[in-house]
Amino acid sequence: MPHPYTQAIRAREQGEEGIRLQKVLAQAGFGSRRKCEQIITQGRVEVDGKLVTTLGSRVDPSHQQIRVDGSRIHLNDKHVTLALNKPRKVLSTMDDPKGRFTLRDIIGDRYERVFHMGRLDYDSEGLILMTDDGELAQHVMHPRYEVEKTYIATLNGHIGGNVCRRLVSQGVELDDGLIRLDHCAIIDHNREHTIVKVVLHSGKNRIVRRIFGAIGYPVTRLVRTQIGPIRLGEIRPGSYRVLSAAEIKALDKEVGL
């Protein structure tokens, strides 16, 4: 139970006038109060999109968006974001009435409120991001922010570099419109298969499989290796890790937070 004096101080600091901006910055890890005062007076802080340089300014961090050097600050609000390596034959959902394996079987019950940001189809593998930060999830999944996604696809058949170049420059017409790849490169090939690295912004369902299927090269294996600045790295299939503060900051910047 906090001491009555401590409660009084908290009540005064978090009353109608909010909390001093430099204290919020200090709590977010930007250094001492003195250092945070310098950050404010240097014109590096915005509150709800407006530059703030006055040291006496008070804010409500639970309802206002605060940025330093253009990046959203994070108080220790217990949000968690995970990078997970989904194997084949696992559903991109948290439960399944048919009893098939889901993401919940991988992360268990430790993170009750997390949900997946986007999906991979049942037979695809690789990186899925999960979070309990609703604002971050909304930005990552919204088409407006066009987060790049990188895949390694194994194709049935041998294709040449001209096919990759055409998918970037001209694209392919699908049932729901024209789609172009941002990048396409052949990694390896033999007479029967070609392995390509592709990058695109679209998050449409089964988009990589549909693109190559439309030109006669079915995808036999598909692994997503990167979403924005977050890489799959050394995460083993069926495992996950918690993103670092630096990775969260990079992801925030990628989606305009």
From TrEMBL:
Keywords per UniProt: Isomerase, RNA-binding
GO molecular function: RNA binding; rRNA pseudouridine synthase activity
Stretches assigned to the RNA-binding S4 domain: 19-79
RNA-binding keyword on record: yes
Record SMART domains: S4
Gene3D superfamilies, sorted: Alpha-L RNA-binding motif (3.30.70.1560), Pseudouridine synthase I, catalytic domain, N-terminal subdomain (3.30.70.580), RNA-binding S4 domain (3.10.290.10)
Signal peptide positions (record): none
Catalyses which reaction(s): a uridine in RNA = a pseudouridine in RNA
EC number from the UniProt entry: 5.4.99.-
Top-level taxon of the source organism: Bacteria
SUPFAM superfamilies tied to this protein: Alpha-L RNA-binding motif, Pseudouridine synthase
UniProt enzyme class: isomerase
GO biological process, one term: enzyme-directed rRNA pseudouridine synthesis
Family membership noted in the UniProt record: Belongs to the pseudouridine synthase RsuA family.
Designated name of the protein: Pseudouridine synthase
